[in-house]
Site-specific integrase
Amino acid sequence: MVERRRGFGYIRKLPSGRYQASYLGPDQVRHNAPITFEAKIDCEGWLATERRLIERDEWIAPAERAGIEAAAQRAAAETVRTYAERWLAEGVSRGRLRPLTALDYRRSLELHILPTLGDVRLSEVTRGTVRAWHDTTMANTAPRARSKAYALLRTVMNNAVQDELIAASPVQIRGAGVARRKHEIEPASLSELDAIVAAMPERLGLTVLLATWCALRYGEVAELRRKDVTLSSGQLRVARSVSFLPGGTQVGPPKTKAGARRVAVPPHVLPALERHLKAFVKSDANALLFPGEAGGHLHESVLFKHWDRARRSVGRADLRFHDLRHTGATLAAQAGATTAELQARLGHATPDAAMIYQHAARGRDQELAARLSLLAIRTEAE
């Protein structure tokens, strides 16, 4: 059909009888209206609007503007559930979240966040909404689960801000994302460690030594292979970690980027490491240091049966396997490790956790000083 030139833009009648409007934009590109119009006057109205936008220096290409408006409409309809689930799925697919972390987040979402907030639109979540959820719905939840759920909600809403779905996060309760332990972890004593190692099966005693003296996580211990051990320099290479999921095991990078590291093995542990390599590890470079009896990784549940029996034999039923890492970090701090050295040895992304162990070491030093004073007093009395 014939296209008619106007003072601004073009209008043409289509074979269908409807009208199409277009114009040459400031970018010297021809832009069509996103829809066709039933009447010519509607085309003229659309062109007049576009011209005003250009004159006011507010113009954006119609296609780009339509995309922005569609995104705004989606954002207005986005709920906590739809956004949180998409954020979680993208985190896993892009490798930002480890499988166990994603599983933990999924449980927290389904148990604590989505039942109350899932159907609320992101734009309608206010500080009052969050406060009511935290102080009422979550009031009787265990402190650690409560703080983890709050921290997860904060992370989700902060990401919504970055995605420009909301202007600011409404999750602003000071201190709510931190769980304070009711009881401090009591590190294992050296005599307790020796007794626990002796009570473990011979092929598993080294797991206790490495978790303690090298401050390794269990997933790091279970994925160690012969190629990761360098006896000549007395080092372990921590390059991978195994996660035990409901559907099986999954090997991936350590918990944090800083988790990929080389750890010096204390000299007194090296003989045990060398004996273990000779007695229990195949010669293949990829052979696991601690394989399961049927092959593959030693599942944490299998280790726990032996661990539980060993810890109870020394009266430490409270001691978790992960507490060995805490013990090792505290011992390193007592040996004079700096914050940076602890952070590197433990594979922490930030110095905060390392500082906790330094504080613990200082507290132990005060306890030792007090005992020295008691010894001096007794000597004087005699």
